Write a sequence for this structure.
């Protein structure tokens, strides 16, 4: 009997371990590609051209988030329900096609307003932002997440990303201009989207996506808008520094700052991968074993926090040595920026996992209430610090905003305060639930 009782737990552990392994392979593969190829591209383009490319990627990323409508976790949940999965897919596909086109138009209008005297910037942004066309293919990722089959999309992404990396290396060897690297970004989006769609069609040959979708569309919009706005606020918090630096500091300053910040941001993949892998198990625990849920939540948060502190400490000490060697003398100021910006890692880890706990507990609106002051504080801090301190000011603004979000905001509201206390206690004892 005891063996039978233990078997489901072992099966759950094996599933989490396997899915987390594939997710980490995918994320770490992207991290490796981004670091190695990104450093080579930065050296090749120089701070000014790299700043233009970074600006285009940043502003496209902001509106790409809006195209997602905050539906990521909701779609994973719906696709896991066999009764509504097909209709939910069709509804989500229609929504993504519409919002992708609208987001592209809004992106280009924003670039024109923000940088009216820079036709080159507008042209580069037009190429990079065109990758939004392939945003609907992300639904494939959510479908396989719902089915607990992370291996298939992970392999498709890795193949596409390595092909795109090889193409960038050829561009570097051929001394290609800035526009060629913008086209490479678009080609990467096309490769990833096409690969995901191909594996989906190969593995779901008998799927039929029929049924009434109007009700699902309206339901998704109702459920997703708080998460969509929250996601927008998060991406604004992460990218506003580049936009404001481009306005007040110039493209070269953006390039120096972006080269440092990118090395921090590639590590953000860890809590995302861990959260996706743990999500089904956390949902089950929350329903059946509240004490076990809080214990796992506390251990996960504690482990990520310690990992973030160790990484940040190591990078702060080593950045003055390895960053000038990696990027070259044109990026000499990046080492000081990275030594500050890397500390956002600790707080981003905490905020990322906290958001997943709130989704599980049905308190998604509180993600919005915590994201709004974080974004506002970040923008205000950047407006004050960038004119005086440039990239260093942007780095301090990022650390301050994320630190405020992780350490202060949760104690301002009863629900999030209860969540924080339960995580700290780790189920000893269970202090209750957040509703």
């Amino acid at each position: 009997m005891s063996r039978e009782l233990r078997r489901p737990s072992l099966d759950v552990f094996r599933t989490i371990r396997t899915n987390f392994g594939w997710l980490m392979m995918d994320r770490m593969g992207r991290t490796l590609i981004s670091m190695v190829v990104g450093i080579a591209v930065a050296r090749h383009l120089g701070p000014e051209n790299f700043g233009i490319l970074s600006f285009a990627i940043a502003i496209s990323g902001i509106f790409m988030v809006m195209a997602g409508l905050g539906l990521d976790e909701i779609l994973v949940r719906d696709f896991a329900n066999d009764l509504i999965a097909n209709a939910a897919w069709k509804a989500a596909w229609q929504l993504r096609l519409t919002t992708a086109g609208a987001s592209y138009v809004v992106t280009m209008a924003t670039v024109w307003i923000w940088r009216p005297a820079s036709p080159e910037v507008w042209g580069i942004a037009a190429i990079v932002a065109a990758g939004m066309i392939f945003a609907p293919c992300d639904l494939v990722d959510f479908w396989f997440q719902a089915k607990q089959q992370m291996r298939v999309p992970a392999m498709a992404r890795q193949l596409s990303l390595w092909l795109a990396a090889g193409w960038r290396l050829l561009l570097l060897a051929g001394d290609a201009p800035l526009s060629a690297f913008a086209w490479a970004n678009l080609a990467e989006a096309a490769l990833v989207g096409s690969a995901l769609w191909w594996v989906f069609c190969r593995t779901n040959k008998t799927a039929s996506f029929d049924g009434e979708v109007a009700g699902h569309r309206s339901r998704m919009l109702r459920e997703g808008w708080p998460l969509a706005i929250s996601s927008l606020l998060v991406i604004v918090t992460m990218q506003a520094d580049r936009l404001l630096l481009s306005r007040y500091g110039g493209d070269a300053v953006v390039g120096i700052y972006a080269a440092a910040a990118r090395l921090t941001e590639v590590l953000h993949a860890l809590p995302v991968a861990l959260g996706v892998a743990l999500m089904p198990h956390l949902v089950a625990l929350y329903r059946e074993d509240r004490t076990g849920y809080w214990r796992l939540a506390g251990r996960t948060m504690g482990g990520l926090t310690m990992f973030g502190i160790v990484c940040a400490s190591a990078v702060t000490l080593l950045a003055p040595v390895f960053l000038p060697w990696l990027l070259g003398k044109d990026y000499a100021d990046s080492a000081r920026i990275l030594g500050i910006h890397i500390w956002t890692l600790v707080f981003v880890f905490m905020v990322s996992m906290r958001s997943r706990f709130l989704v599980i507990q049905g308190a998604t609106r509180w993600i919005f209430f915590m994201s709004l002051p974080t974004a506002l504080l970040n923008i205000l801090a950047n407006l004050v610090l960038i004119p005086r301190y440039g990239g260093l000011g942007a780095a301090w603004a990022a650390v301050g905003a994320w630190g405020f979000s992780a350490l202060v905001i949760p104690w301002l509201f009863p629900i999030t305060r209860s969540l924080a206390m339960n995580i700290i206690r780790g189920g000893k004892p269970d202090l209750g639930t957040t509703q």
